[in-house]
Write a structure and sequence with these properties.
Number of strands: 17
Oligomer: single chain
Number of helices: 15
Shape: globular
Radius of gyration: 24 Å
Length: 464
């Protein structure tokens, strides 16, 4: 009897602890999407969840912006996974050659990373973050499955400086209630707007190059987890329906059959959620997978199943926006519902095949290290007389964790000359930079160094 009493007491304490977790509506005093929320308030809800459900939520700071706003991420999973979180993370990195040693556990959950609000005035995605987090923690068949089979990482705002620039402006201009008329002041965001970071740079094009501090800190955190899945959430013009995978052509030729297959699978799950609610959407158009420095392509070239998501809206849409072409009013509350559904649908798609996702990721990195793609198995960069540019190149390689070494002696070789675009003899000298394709990051290396990318379609999103 005594043991039973202790068990019931522990269960009661657990239920009481979860009962203290407030819904976003309770916490903010309004439903997600009814008001614009600055970044610090989103972080307060994240902190609230981490305090109330510490067994399932861990809040981490991975850096700060130029304007001293913190950059945070939340790790969310089942109690068992969270107890073993560091072992899961390090075993995962060891299994793909990104950390020395051998993994101790064979069966590991997939890591699913969701990035919101890289463009600061695409505020729907950050606004949806509290709703997504609460749905994961509220319990139920789908959320329990997701937490059991995956480690979910939620990055609520990749660009807090831009986001707050937009939200502060909007909250200054709105009246007692939103004005959906497209000519209203609240729909005329002035230059430079909230899209960009402090330096008015677009961090969404910066994943490979990492010229911006927010990107460098993001990629450093990304490399600590190397997620199997990455969701890159955006907004577009207000008259468009929702967009999700499968992506448009061209796909880069080195995107694997498995990654292509999972574009279809994730799209199917999203369709199921959207069809259930009679929401409009489209796929296979406009957003391709070629340029290597987006939030979908750079993770893809690092082995992840990665997708762009685009909600119609953006900075012009505000809380409510009349769409004359569509004959209806687009509301932020609806946009938030779409983003939340797409997030959960994607997590469920991965949770239903988590073991396979992990296996294919390991295969990707095993191929990189033992049978790399491409006809070139090493790259030689002459260093004499060009120290400045060689230093810049090494910094770029270091940011992407691409390993390199140096030639120790003079040797006569034949190779492709990037300047003449011909195969010809050359000599290495001691100190020349040598980059081997036999390494974990060889897929990304090949794509960044390739001479003539293969195009299956002549039109790409914004680079030709």
């Amino acid at each position: 009897m005594r043991k039973t009493g202790l068990l019931l007491t522990g269960l009661l304490l657990t239920l009481q602890s979860f009962a203290q977790l407030q819904s976003p509506t309770q916490f903010f005093g309004f439903a997600p999407g009814e008001q614009m929320v600055p970044t610090h308030r989103l972080y307060q809800y994240a902190e609230h969840a981490a305090q109330q459900v510490p067994a399932k939520v861990k809040m981490m700071t991975y850096g700060q912006t130029h304007e001293k706003r913190p950059l945070i991420m939340l790790v969310v999973s089942s109690e068992e996974n969270m107890r073993n979180l560091e072992q899961i993370r390090t075993d995962h990195l060891k299994s793909i050659g990104m950390m020395s040693g051998q993994p101790t556990a064979k069966n590991r959950p997939a890591v699913v990373w969701m990035s919101y609000n890289v463009h600061g005035n695409e505020a729907t995605n950050s606004a949806a973050f509290p709703k997504v987090l609460h749905e994961l923690l509220a319990g139920g068949t789908v959320s329990d499955k997701i937490l059991k089979n995956t480690i979910v990482i939620l990055a609520p705002c990749l660009n807090p400086d831009g986001h707050d620039r937009y939200v502060n402006w909007y909250n200054q201009k709105i009246g007692t209630s939103p004005n959906a008329n497209t000519s209203a002041w609240e729909h005329g965001e002035p230059w430079p707007g909230g899209r960009y970071n402090h330096y008015l740079f677009d961090p969404n094009r910066d994943w490979a190059w990492q010229t911006q501090e927010v990107t460098r800190q993001l990629i450093a955190a990304y490399h600590q987890w190397m997620p199997h899945v990455h969701g890159d959430f955006h907004e577009m013009g207000p008259n468009s329906p929702y967009y999700f995978a499968p992506s448009a052509k061209p796909y880069h030729e080195d995107i694997t059959p498995w990654q292509r297959e999972m574009q279809e699978v994730v799209g199917t799950y999203n369709k199921r959620y959207f069809d259930r609610n009679n929401w409009l959407y489209y796929t296979h158009e406009r957003f391709d997978l070629l340029y290597p420095s987006y939030g979908d392509t750079w993770p893809t070239y690092n082995g992840a199943i990665a997708m762009t998501y685009e909600q119609g809206g953006g900075g012009v849409a505000g809380l409510a926006y009349d769409r004359p072409d569509e004959g209806d009013t687009l509301r932020l509350t609806d946009r938030v519902a779409h983003v939340s559904a797409a997030s959960i649908a994607t997590m469920e798609a991965i949770a239903d095949r988590s073991t396979k996702v992990v296996e294919e990721f390991i295969k990707f990195y095993d191929r990189n290290q033992n049978n790399p793609i491409g006809i070139y198995k090493s790259y030689v960069v002459k260093t004499a007389g060009d120290e400045g540019r060689v230093k810049a190149l090494k910094e770029l390689l270091d940011k992407n964790q691409i390993r390199y070494g140096y030639s120790s002696e003079a040797r006569a070789l034949t190779g492709y000359n990037y300047l003449t675009q011909k195969d010809e003899p050359f000599r290495t000298e001691a100190g020349d930079l040598v980059i081997s394709a036999y390494q974990s990051k060889s897929n990304l290396l090949k794509i960044l160094f390739e001479t003539k990318p293969m195009l299956e379609d002549s039109v790409t999103y914004d680079i030709t």
